[in-house]
Amino acid sequence: MPAVPHDEWLRRAKAFQLSGAHHIDGAEEAGGGAVFPVVSPRDGRVVADVADGGAAEVDAAVAAARRAFDTGPWPRLAPAERGRALLRLADLLEERREELALTVSLEMGKPISDAYGIELRAVITTFRWYGQLADKLTDESPHTAPDALALVTREPAGVVGAVVPWNFPLTLAGWKVAPALAAGCTVVLKPSENSPLSALLLGRLATEAGLPPGVLNVVTGDGPTAGRALGLHPDVDVLAFTGSTAVGRHFLRYAADSNLKRVWLELGGKSPNIVLPDAPDLEKAAATAAWGIFFNQGEMCTAPSRLLVHSSIAERVTEAVVRRARELRVGDPLDPETEMGALVGRAHLDRVAGHIRHGVDEGARLRTGGDRVLAETGGTYLEPTVFDRVDPGSRLAREEIFGPVLSVLAFDDLDEAVRLANATEYGLAAGLWTSDLSTAHRVSRALKAGTVWVNCYEEGDLTVPFGGMKQSGNGRDKSAHALEKYTELKTTWIQL
């Protein structure tokens, strides 16, 4: 984190200006002239007016991406050359890191220390990793009879539509854009209307890095118009989406109603975090549980929102989490000392508050938090909130809240813990704390989740895939496996 004090971030925020035009075919495009305001959750003020795109703007962006794919140089470049372009983009992201961190913090309320130290680190690392991977992929030549030669090649799939949410606006864009570009595809990126500014900057920096016109386009607008137009577009070959399960269903319907494009979904979660009595460090387990649910204001699909604790240690662990929640510093996202910033907007704050009210009505015990704070700032801040004595069948235990709200459930034996963990329509992630190696393996295999963390949470790097099971979606971001989404397998059989 750079040594930039709070007052300097405030000065930069006051001077902040950014064009809200779409980025299409390598240039700014105002579109039809309609705009919408981007309201900062830190104080309720309008940060910028952004072009409100619809079918016409999506058509223009897809047409540019189609030209760039069908007749442009990008898919035909040597993989090493594509990789060098992605590395140049990573360097530009590093150069503009402070500006990008400020943009993310202003548009979605993330603490500036997390925006700079975590979000920007992740997206820079992503473009560098795929830039370095681009020329290291291999095709196959299966063994055949002596009179034939078989080739199995991976070819870029074509035009990719990428629709990403607001909670990690650059990281999640990078997880989709970087492997798609490395594979030789062209991309139309549609960011959330809550966080379009950082995506627009990404598009402009891509052009500055030397990506040909039309290779990366950014269209801003809401889901029912711009998102729907992208999902239905007959010239989009692949659609990659991160967001809610409800919206993911829409994209599957859009594919069925158009060209049967492949749709890759990374959706919601209600992730369990299981703490056994033999956990190697109960204090660390509790501290990690608190960090996991309150990091990024709880606005994470992988957030460990259900803490499953053995009844013999439930009160000890819960009290440690409650103590940490009360110590957490909630405040201005632009203050480097802030640990939890603002929820993304008033509508989302009201939704999370509604879940808290339902939890109380359903009989769960509110141990701490639950109230709005710092309302005088005009921002959307909420206290870190912990419930225990949560009924496993309640809405509090079943529904994704996407906020800083933890549900604690006690269990008496390991079989019950696994049943509770899997008693959800989601299957994105899970945590397990134990000192027993056999238990770690057995439970990890039994948990229906795309990622299981043992004696940690939210750890990993670009070498491992990320994605879910059940209604948490399909497909995988990160790792070399991500390129499978953006390539087509072709068999060539040559009779000699």
TrEMBL record:
Keywords, in A-Z order: Oxidoreductase
InterPro entries: Ald_DH/histidinol_DH, Ald_DH_C, Ald_DH_CS_CYS, Ald_DH_CS_GLU, Ald_DH_N, Aldehyde_DH_dom
GO MF annotation terms: oxidoreductase activity, acting on the aldehyde or oxo group of donors, NAD or NADP as acceptor
Record keyword Nucleotidyltransferase present: no
Active site: 266
Pfam (any one): Aldedh
Source species, domain of life: Bacteria
Residue ranges of domain Aldehyde dehydrogenase in the record: 35-491
EC number in record: 1.2.1.-
EC primary class: oxidoreductase
PANTHER family named among the record's database cross-references: ALDEHYDE DEHYDROGENASE-RELATED (PTHR11699)
Family named by the database record: Belongs to the aldehyde dehydrogenase family.
Name by which UniProt lists this protein: Gamma-glutamyl-gamma-aminobutyraldehyde dehydrogenase
Annotated organism of origin: Streptomyces collinus
